[in-house]
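We store sequence, tokenised fold; for instance:
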Amino acid sequence: MDPIFSIGIRSLWDELRHMPTGGVWWLNTDRENDAYSLINQTIAQQNTEANVAVIGMDLDLRSILKLDKNRGPKEIRLFSMPNQRNSLYFFTRDLLCTIQPENYFLILLCANNSWQNIPALQIHQWLEKTHEWAKYQNCTLLVINPGSNNDKQASILMSEYRSLFGLASLRYQNGMHLYDVTWWCNEKGISARQQLVLHHHDDQWQLAKQEETAVQPRSDEKRVLSNVVVLEGAPPLSEHWSLFKTNEALFEEARSSQAATLIFSLARNNQIDSIARQVHILRRQRGSNLKIIVRESQASLRATDERLLLGCGANMVVPWNAPLSRCLTLIESVQGQQFNRLVPEDITTLLSMTQPLKLRGYQPWNVFCDAISNMVNNQLLPPDGKGVLVALRPAPGIRIEQALTLCRPNRMGDIVSMSDNRLVMFLSFCRVNDLDTALNHIFPLPTTDIFSNRMVWFEDNQIAAELVQMRMLAPEKLPKPLPETAKMEKVINAEHDGTGWRRIPEPYCLFSDTTGRTS
């Protein structure tokens, strides 16, 4: 009969503890000491005849392992491997050189943050290969991975339910140890989305509540966790509302939610990245039943920022000009909804998808065309929403080089070039109905005074077709900008104050004569 090994938390029920042979289980911890303590208790839980081997990644296992003479297996095989990417790839091959792993319990104790620089694709390939190996060799592999960025690690592993029989994490938060079980599969069945509170006393791990002997059903659908700013000074609307002073406090409380409503507050543009990461973690780790809302308290969101938040897993973004009554109606409208959009496992994919071009202002013709082509051909960006390409022909009497000196793009991703007596601009992620507003911010004079006509392309196939024509232009038809423009210097003394262009006052030093008087 094939042996069944167990994790070292005795008070857990069998559905969350057993690890039969033929599979791989993964456990993340945010502290190294917790990983060492757990591995010692796990070894102690095995019977005396169990075949156990521990593989340490660049670790001194003899100083880490503290064996109990009265419990645990009679013998433990110890192995060491370098903290290098190649050592992981050849882990199974090297192990076969020493032992026959059939019916073995293998524990791989990783070095701190050892997986953080390995691409997600290579992690998936390693898991798939290792799962097949463990199944063929009829052994059990437990990966214990301490690290400071395990939220990202868990998000990458979330889709590996075919290669991982179990995925869990042990976090230390607010003086408590939280044991999050994403899923755990064994001969007793499958358990998923469990969060348990553990006590650690005398190097022993146990459940905080011993009476919990079955998978606990929890329903928090009526609960609303909100930033206090969202209610604009109003008290909690019912006993189901909980208010938090910061988004960070709200995020920590929400990590134990299943189907609650979460309302973040966004007041400044520099909060977007942090809120997006929090929303992404909650959506990936806590599931599709959460209702996540971002309330904009001050005007700070661009269309790309809103797309980022929705792509990270937010159900809705409430604009800043929506009154409180309208906001509460929108919050009520998402009740009972289930989030069904795909959220990428790595948030960097979403960030690269929504960030504009890393270019601004005048660009040489080839660079200009290549940048637009990369945007149009990016499959991660929404169709027909990548930006607007506009060609402007100067009015009679104005040279194209002179028109370029009036072009003052301030937003990253807005680029311009010149061709055959036309000023060609690409405004990334600009909607076609906002084109006039954008041009009024870029030019200090009315565009009707500077240009006689314009042509606009905003659909992907239109822009792609125009790019073909643009690349066919002969080099002699490409004028050169004035030296000041090419250096991106300010050639006009004006600035845009949000409503219109204003001249910037220039200080002048008056002449002083020998008597000290100025004239």
Remarks:
- The longest strand covers residues 189-201.
- The longest helix spans residues 120-137.
- Confidence is low (pLDDT under 50) at residues 210-217, 486-492.
